């Protein structure tokens, strides 16, 4: 499906998000707090739009995606970026390879998102950061109703006019509705072994930016026992919330 939408992916995104994606992407880059000389993994990078700000700032970014169609469009557009074909659930990188990892509007598309969270933990250095941008749940009820109407009615109608594969946008709307809310995703992060999990809502919760850190202690890095220890040690509000979540 992503191979089919690749040629017009970025233009269509801008239209359907009413120009909001640029602002959302800036918040992600600021949250990463990476500097020149550091190595960043941008997972499910697609055509590399989410990777560009790092490359532009002289930060070494690896744009990884499993859609060759997306990677081809990206490489043509930005030959200077290192595009790598790879599956988020079985990353082709050694343990502790990156100073920070990020995934924008991609985790929802991965078949086994919890596996991807574990893989990102494995390839990130101890003490390194993870930033996730993903569609989420608007927090104010009236805004939630209006947004749901937009998603289920207006968006597919606009997609018919501007997109080469409108069915992909029906999938987009349905996958957003089925995706866990902010607290639930935060609990998944803790479960995978990430610590200091926080999130920030953008555009009233249409998008949430989750931030987390890989535990610095040796032993916690990417091992199942370490992950369990990290969850047990986490006493924050999200850790409390986990106990009330039925999976
Ligand atoms: C909506 S695009 C996001 C692209 C980019 N990050 C952005 O912000 O524009 C989602 C991407 O996730 C990729 N994807 C889905 N499942 C994947 C997986 N298991 N491994 C790697 N990439 C995956 C798709 O190929 C697609 O390019």
Kindly describe this structure.
Strand 1 (39-43), helix 4 (52-56) and strand 2 (60-65) form a beta-alpha-beta unit. The chain has helices spanning 2-5, 9-16, 20-32, 52-56, 68-77, 113-123, 141-162, 167-178, 182-192, 224-233, 237-242; strands at residues 39-43, 60-65, 82-85, 98-104, 124-135, 195-202, 207-213. The two termini are 28 Å apart. Strands 3-2-1-4-5-7-6 form a seven-stranded mixed beta sheet, sandwiched between helices. It has 247 residues and is an alpha/beta fold. The protein has two domains: 2-137 and 181-242, 3-Layer(aba) Sandwich (Rossmann fold), CATH 3.40.50.150; 141-172, no CATH class. The structure holds S-adenosylmethionine. The site of S-adenosylmethionine (SAM) has 18 residues, from loops.
Q: Which structural class best describes the helix and strand composition?
A: alpha/beta
CATH class of the largest domain: Alpha Beta
Number of helices: 11
Mean pLDDT: 85
Count of extended strands:
7
The ordered H/E elements are: HHHEHEHEEHEHHHEEHH
From the 3D structure, determine the CATH topology of the largest domain: Rossmann fold
Structural domain count: 2
Rg from Cα:
18 Å
Query: Can you list the ligands bound to this structure?
Result: S-adenosylmethionine
- End-to-end distance: 28 Å
Annotated CATH architecture of the largest domain: 3-Layer(aba) Sandwich
